[in-house]
Amino acid sequence: MTHAVIDIGSNTIRTNVYAITGMAFQPLFSEKIIAGLANYIQDEQLNQEGIHRLCASLEHFQKMLHRIGVSSIGVFATASIRNVNNTKEILQAVKKQTGYTIDILSGEDEALLDYYGMLHNIDASQGALFDIGGGSTEIVAFNENEPYLAKSIPIGSLNLFTRYVSDFLPTKQEQKLIEKHIRQELKGIRFSAITPVEKVVGVGGTTRAVLKLVNSLFDLPVDNCVIQMDQITTLREIVAKDNAKTRKLILRNCPDRIHTLVPGLLIMMHILNHLKAPCFTISTYGVREGYLWQKMLNR
Q1: Are 241 and 170 in contact (CB under 8 A)?
Q2: What is the Cα–Cα distance from 61 to 173, expressed in whole angstroms?
Q3: Which of 103, 203, 230, 268 is the most exposed, fewest CB within 10 Å of its CB?
Q4: Going by C-beta distance under 8 Å and a sequence separation of 6 or more, which residues neighbour residue 256?
């Protein structure tokens, strides 16, 4: 049987298709649209242009999945729709145009599904996980294979870019403003309650983009999935400079994230400093796989 998951994020809308065999799943393919819904938020509402962009993206995926003939389709949204005050209007518009019912995940649910998805890829009984999205950031701490802290804060790589950055890459002054905002939001996370971690795991598009940059910059194997803190520090020093070298590095490895890379990297560095992590591992599985397993298959 094949199942599809549509993930409506603040930066991208992504469809993943999986084959299910017994108690295992296998990703078949993934496609994304850089919808940038966070750019269409005005006065805490997703405007009509943004709603049209969302519906058009979902119709594209709907036609594609109809041709494939999947067994079931699950559609969920995170901060892109969770953090606006016209959610009901959006849900009604999507239902009318596509027939889809969108499952709005709470911040805590998103964090926990990140964790349950990660378990299918990473062997870790004790540690912490973070997911830096376009409109929110999730942090989970777990011990003896059980999460004991799951938090979401309303900052992400895209909404920080939209709020503070005037060009593709932030100036030094804009970076200072971004970091001030990050520090303020992270006060809502009780890092003192997190026991010293054995393993830190990063999930999501921002961490995968940073991994591509690190592997390229340090000439590491393409299948490397571990990043050292000193590598992150070096990368930050390079991308903090808005010059030809920085732009070329990003454009060669993750061109669709040239505008969100630095804000996302700054969030990442502050989280890692709080966790006192010398390194972290990137998981290829996260919230979509957690949603598939926990919500759609009830496993």
Answers
A1: no
A2: 40
A3: 230
A4: 34
H/E segment holding residue 247 = helix 244-253
In sequence order, what are the residues at sequence separation of 6 or more whose Cβ sits closer than 8 angstroms to the Cβ of residue 151?
Answer: 107, 108, 111, 138, 139, 140, 188, 189
Residue 51 DSSP label = H
End-to-end CA distance of the chain: 15
Cβ contact 283:203 at 8 Å: yes
Q: What percent of the chain has pLDDT over 90?
A: 91
Residues 131/210, Cβ–Cβ less than 8 Å: no
CB 232 within 8 A of CB 269: yes
pTM of structure: 0.94
How far apart CA 150 and CA 142 sit, in angstroms, is: 9
**Which of 42, 45, 34 has its CA nearest to residue 11?**
34
Residue 165 has what pLDDT?
Answer: 96
CB distance 275 to 193 below 8 Å: no
Contact between 283 and 122 (Cβ < 8 Å): yes
**Structure confidence at residue 168 as a pLDDT band (50, 70, 90):** confident
- pLDDT tens, position by position, 100-135: 999 999 999 999 999 999 999 999 999 999 999 999
Domains of the chain: 2-104 (3.30.420.40), 123-282 (3.30.420.150)
